[in-house]
UniProtKB/TrEMBL annotation, chain A:
Residues 389-477 form the Lactate utilization protein B C-terminal domain. Residues 67-294 form the LUD domain. Residues 311-380 form the 4Fe-4S ferredoxin-type domain. It comes from Streptantibioticus rubrisoli. Residues 445-464 are annotated as: Disordered. Keywords: 4Fe-4S, Electron transport, Iron, Iron-sulfur, Metal-binding, Repeat, Transport. This is Lactate utilization protein. InterPro entries: 4Fe4S_Fe-S-bd (IPR017896), 4Fe4S_Fe_S_CS (IPR017900), FTHF_cligase-like_sf (IPR024185), Helical_ferredxn (IPR009051), LUD_dom (IPR003741), LutB/LldF (IPR004452), LutB_C (IPR024569), NagB/RpiA_transferase-like (IPR037171).
TrEMBL record, chain B:
SUPFAM superfamilies: NagB/RpiA/CoA transferase-like. It comes from Streptantibioticus rubrisoli. InterPro entries: FTHF_cligase-like_sf (IPR024185), LUD_dom (IPR003741), NagB/RpiA_transferase-like (IPR037171). It comes from the Bacteria. This is Lactate utilization protein C. Residues 47-211 form the LUD domain.
Length: 485, 213
């Protein structure tokens, strides 16, 4: 990844692309107001949010126990559990499992974990074709593109672009799009339905992620809208789920919190159209073979950081993207990983480390306005983690990489520092984005709880979590304003 | 060392700050959130369910138990259905007035299911606050794929027995051992410019019949 463009370079390209920026602005504004309404319907939202954060904290603080419990429950229910230390190992395991079935193609339901590890590319290298079945992922895959949003990966494409991609590319992958395909969303969806149905009906192997894994019962949960998830989870004979270890929740009852938080926070719905849960295998219903691949790939390193580990609470709702003034201007691709927006800015540098210019610049891809923290349904204090990671980039220190403690050198005077400075300057030089962010933060700051009830990690430390000062002041104080000029 | 041990050891080292005496319940989880959002009579819950289902573009019908067979017959007729898959445990009387509609057994192949016009099932529980019906693969609901491949799903909900107000109340009634499908309106996507479109892969039409005994 070291040759990847750094955040400011990539962001500049996006900003120049007026189409992308327009699509993005329209989309994030729409979802933002819808979400506010869906959240306002629940008088106990703050309590659900605190409970969600606390359940995740409980899980993370005893993750070894819960994973062992989960493994035992999945195994007892007829599933097979595999452990993958890193992306390569996960890819090898999945490739081996698919090869063992003798199949040359698999259907996939959107999964950020498999995107993170580059599974499609690994399968392709082994001669296995992976078909993405989520409409947005299909658009991305057919367009030989990269996703730019967690929830709406093709958010950067408008309907005319999508029609052109379908017309041009569908034929090369299977059933072609109708000649006279228009750009109405209904017709586009119909074309995708027909294109993918033949794949679902003949697929023998499916690959999924999961939104939650229940340790006590061994149950996996997939939350979706289109039904492609249901197709993948029920029609094929073999199901392989690749899931980050942090997706665990302790009990069945805990789902009552997350199944309220997630749909309202992500798609702004009371409930998403389809949620599937399964426990191992069921005779005569769904796949007869189920494999669960538990993925570390930097998560245990993240867990070792007492400030940064809260990023592992994330339920991938994407609310923080939709409120982020920097994301709105820069676009998802600028973040250079499967995880764009504020969550990407704190997760990627922890999962991958800050050795590359891009990863070192990510903690600076923010104006620290605090809007992301305000909307986060599991109360991840993203600004706090950003400041913490900036400190680490600037001053170096002790971190865990691949399970071992290492000391990283301060970035001062190094390429990484210069890139980081440019990223900060980039966020800083977009006053329109910044002002919007600061206004939002000013409006919400009073609502920020000083500390969440029952949040043990912050209890043991001094906060100020969100620096009380605005970004400009922070910049002046920590950098003397010199480089910012 | 196996990868399993490697990961577990890394976790234990990462959590060196967690006191060895700490057990999970030492990490407090305050469940002071609401069990349901508001107090409702059975009838009010049924109304809210109907309202929220309709809000997500499911078509809702209400009838008495005695009227159910004729109601189902008219829904199938209105849809022009000539074949309907119904699971083994769906009462024969549900289809007793649907003359001219062939009942397809649930164990047909996925390809055959793709040619069936409609599917008729019961449900395990329905959630008023979210407008959700939950299927748990019981005999009157059948295996999961029958409610997925056909384009038209008629789901029978018994009122008030099967209606709960909230997500917490629903989970309590459901068994994690059974494969569950939570359905809130027909299949939809907002992937194209966040414009909601009904029906990508699941049934594009969902009709829910609330039956009062
Ligand atoms: S960090 Fe919070 S708001 Fe952002 S995607 Fe994760 S859960 Fe959602």
């Amino acid at each position: 990844m070291s040759d990847a463009a750094s955040f400011p370079q990539a962001a500049r390209i996006s900003v120049r692309n007026a189409q992308l920026r327009g699509n993005l602005r329209h989309a994030t504004r729409t979802i933002r107001s819808k979400r506010a309404r869906a959240v306002a319907e629940l008088a106990d939202w703050d309590r659900l949010r605190a409970a969600g954060a606390a359940i995740k904290d409980r899980t993370l603080r005893h993750l070894d126990q819960y994973l062992e419990q989960l493994e035992a429950a999945v195994t007892a229910a007829g599933g097979t559990v595999h452990w993958a230390v890193d992306a390569d190992e996960a890819n090898r395991i999945v490739t081996r499992l698919v090869k063992a079935t003798g199949e040359k193609e698999v259907v996939k339901v959107k999964s950020m974990a498999t995107q993170e590890i580059g599974l499609n590319e690994a399968l392709a290298a082994a001669g296995i074709r992976a078909y993405e079945t989520d409409l947005a992922e299909l658009i991305v895959q057919l367009g030989a593109d990269r996703p730019s949003h967690i929830l709406v990966p093709a958010i950067h494409r408008n309907r005319t672009e999508i029609r052109d991609i379908f017309r041009r590319q569908m034929g090369a992958w299977g059933r072609p799009a109708p000649e006279d395909l228009s750009d109405s969303p209904a017709e586009l969806a119909e074309a995708a339905r027909l294109h993918l149905r033949e794949k679902f009906l003949r697929a023998k192997v499916a690959i999924s992620g999961a939104n939650f894994m229940v340790a006590e019962t061994g149950t996996l949960v997939v939350v979706e809208s289109e039904g492609n998830g249901r197709m993948c989870l029920t029609l094929p004979q073999t199901l392989i789920s690749v899931v980050g270890i942090e997706k665990t929740v302790p009990t069945w009852r805990d789902l009552e919190v997350f199944l309220q938080l997630l749909p309202r926070s992500s798609t702004a719905e009371r409930m998403n159209p389809y949620t599937s849960t399964w426990t191992g295998t069921t005779d005569g219903d769904g796949p007869s073979e189920f494999h669960l691949v538990l993925l570390d790939n930097g998560r245990t390193d993240t867990l070792a950081d007492q400030v940064g580990r809260q990023a592992l609470r994330c339920i991938r709702c994407s609310a923080c993207l939709n409120v982020c003034p920097v994301y709105e201007r820069a676009g998802g691709h600028a973040y250079g990983s499967a995880y764009p927006g504020p969550i990407g800015a704190i997760l990627t540098p922890q999962l991958r480390g800050t050795a590359s210019a891009l990863d070192a610049s990510l903690p600076y891809a923010s104006s620290l306005c605090g809007a992301c923290y305000e909307v986060c349904p599991v109360a991840i204090d993203i600004p706090e983690v950003l400041v913490h990671l900036r400190e680490r980039v600037a001053e170096g220190g002790s971190v865990t990489r691949n399970g071992a403690r290492v000391t990283i050198r301060p970035a001062k005077g190094h390429a990484a520092e210069r890139v980081a400075m440019r990223a900060a300057r980039w966020a800083f030089e977009h006053p329109r984005a910044l002002r919007a962010g600061e206004r939002l933060a000013a409006r919400t700051r009073r609502a920020h709880p000083a500390r969440l009830p029952g949040e043990p990690w912050s209890a043991s430390r001094d906060l100020p979590v969100v620096p009380p000062e605005p970004f400009r002041d922070w910049w002046q104080r920590t950098h003397g304003g010199k480089e910012a000029k | 060392m196996s990868s399993r041990e490697t990961v577990l050891n890394r976790i234990r080292r990462a959590l060196a700050d967690v006191p060895v005496t700490e057990v999970p319940r030492d990490v407090p989880v305050d469940r002071c959130y609401l069990r349901r959002h508001g107090e409702r009579t059975d009838e009010q819950s049924a109304e809210l369910l109907a309202e929220n289902l309709a809000d997500y573009r499911a078509v809702v019908h209400r009838c008495t138990d005695a009227e159910l067979p004729s109601r189902i017959a008219s829904l199938l007729a209105a849809h022009g259905s000539r074949t309907v898959v119904a699971p083994a445990g769906a009462p024969a009387r549900w289809l007793s007035e649907s003359t001219g509609v062939e009942r397809v057994p649930e164990d047909v192949t996925a390809h055959q299911l793709d040619t069936v016009d409609s599917v008729l099932t019961g449900c395990a529980v329905a959630i008023a606050e979210t407008g959700t019906v939950v299927l748990d693969a019981s005999p009157d609901q059948g295996r999961r794929r029958i409610t997925l491949v056909p384009d038209h799903h008629i789901c029978v909900v018994r009122v008030p027995e099967q209606v709960v107000d909230s997500v917490p109340e629903a989970l309590e009634r459901l068994s994690p051992q059974r494969p569950l499908t939570w359905i809130s309106g027909p299949s939809a996507t907002s992937d194209i410019e966040l414009d909601r479109v009904e029906g990508v892969h699941g049934p594009r039409e969902l009709e829910v019949v609330l039956v009062t005994s």
